Amino acid sequence: xxxxxxxxxxxxxxxxxxxxxxxxxxxxxxxxxxxxxxxxxxxxxxxxxxxxxxxxxxxxxxxxxxxxxxxxxxxxxxxxxxxxxxxxxxxxxxxxxxxxxxxxxxxxxxxxxxxxxxxxxxxxxxxxxxxxxxxxxxxxxxxxxxxxxxxxxxxxxxxxxxxxxxxxxxxxxxxxxxxxxxxxxxxxxxxxxxxxxxxxxxxxxxxxxxxxxxxxxxxxxxxxxxxxxxxxxxxxxxxxxxxxxxxxxxxxxxxxxxxxxxxxxxxxxxxxxxxxxxxxxxxxxxxxxxxxxxxxxxxxxxxxxxxxxxxxxxxxxxxxxxxxxxxxxxxxxxxxxxxxxxxxxxxxxxxxxxxxxxxxxxxxxxx
Length: 367
Ligand SMILES: *Cc1c(COP(=O)(O)O)cnc(C)c1O
Ligand code: SF4
Prior knowledge:
This protein is an alpha/beta fold. It has a single domain, classed as TIM Barrel. The protein has helices spanning 14-29, 35-41, 49-58, 65-68, 81-84, 104-107, 150-162, 181-192, 206-209, 216-223, 243-254, 273-285, 309-322, 361-366; strands at 113-114, 120-123, 168-171, 199-204, 228-234, 258-264, 289-294, 330-333, 342-343, 348-349, 355-356. Strands 1-2-3-4-5-6-7-8-9 form a nine-stranded mixed β-sheet. The structure holds pyridoxal-5'-phosphate and iron/sulfur cluster. The site of pyridoxal-5'-phosphate has 9 residues, from strand 2.
């Protein structure tokens, strides 16, 4: 049980904490939300503007300066830029792509709760994100319908309290860390009172996008109850990991937070075995275990990011040749209707350079 620094720190560090809090909230509020400004800051060709405006009208541009600083100036193919700059192709209506690819809306009968799998459920405390990712499967999700008032929160806690099969609560969103620490601390304290819960998991892209979000105040509610804390960050490319991100990760793991990463496989961003291997390597160096590599959810407006399944299976097979087994994330598909995410098997190359489906028996029997 992790109970380090459970008590909020008093007096002399109060100023520091307030400063940090202001910092991340200020960074968030100063995010670039105008496509023209984004192109200008990055010295990009104005030819990109009409497409950017068109995509922006469907799903708003939002990118904080802390993230922009990691994008290469003047490079329209930059893998981080591709995740945030809208393109005209987003408006194409592509067959087979939907506005709710995971069929979440019908399951979303209890406000703020997404209970799809056994033993764990998702609670959504917030609507905002630190960044708007163009590939997001929730780009059409009606967040407005999920704002909870105090009574609705109570009924969410009752729902969780009445279901003893639950052992873990996942705070997800939006990005739960876009909410302030006071609110999050209250939620977590209420959850900790429910005896059958053991773990608290936070799904967030914030420590990657605005690493200043990892404050003492945040660590205090995250590690301050009997619930075992897990943070699953969302990092897609090694260039996303800068010095501040490393610091934030080290800060969390030094307080006993189990860190995992999930990525989304995206064409033109991370669809190469070398990039994926380098991402895992960098993550592990700052204490983060690769968890999932998600096959892209077929959301309308993001078809241009799709890597087909066979290609994805080959990529993972080739990645396995480049790095240690524990650095290879599970390739997963989030099917609607199944009882968990579906793990998709890698395709490996044999000595004749042909791909085959068998697992690598030689390497496993060596261990
Ligand atoms: C992904 C997901 C979870 C968590 O699944 P794990 O495999 O435990 O990471 C829980 N609920 C929903 C609805 C999900 O999509
Ligand atoms: S941070 Fe996550 S939820 Fe928010 S836009 Fe990006 S992918 Fe979607």
